[in-house]
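Hi there,

I know you've been waiting on this one. I reran it after we fixed the sequence typo, so this is the corrected version. Both the input and the resulting structure follow.
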Amino acid sequence: MGLWSRLKRSMRALFGGVIEKTEDPELILQQTIRDMRDRVPELNNAVTQVMATERLLSRNKERLEQQVVDLDSKIKASVKMGRDDIATAYIGQLQQAQLDLSKTSQQLEHASAASKQALKARDNYLLQMQRRTAEAMQLINQSKQAKLQEQLAQTMETFQLGDDASTFNEMRDKIDRRAATAEAKMQLSAASVDNQMQEIEREAMDMQLQDKLLEYKREMGLLSPGTAQPGALPAQGESSATDRDSALIKEGTE
């Protein structure tokens, strides 16, 4: 390998690496999309010119066809009038018009084919542009996601998790102990209240049963008229109605 070739290779490698580092894929893709969109007006203008040529040739063909019809009528009229000289002149014009019509018809066929090809090329370009745009947008999103992941990786590299792990563990233990203590207190308090409520309910049930028993005895005539009403509390120094009733029941049974 010659010296110049080696130098060219070295320069390309050097500047190629620098250019590659400075290239931003997102910016390049966005510029590519803009360039493709900028070509659309030029392409539409070219297609418009081709279609205009086709329309112009079509009008010329119609005009020449009408001219051929008119000249044919004039020739026939001249022959009927016996004016061969005029008929001969019209025949010459008719031949020229027919020749022009033939050429125009061929040109129109080529223009029609060119117009269809231009429209097809324009549609293919628009379709390709849409696909490229969608692909470019997807690549741009991937590039942004890659940047975010790189930033996150850099952040995680500088973040020392082990320094704060002990603090989190210590605070977690304290919170767990506090929560356990609070739950134990709540359970103890609830148990004490439940026991008291159960005792009160049991005492109330006993009172209701005793009152019901006294009612039955009163209805059966087993109680004296001075017997206390159900649920009434005995006065100080007096025995309760339950005690007296118990004594009367005992005497009646002996």
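Quick highlight: The chain has five helices and no strands.

Best,
R. S.
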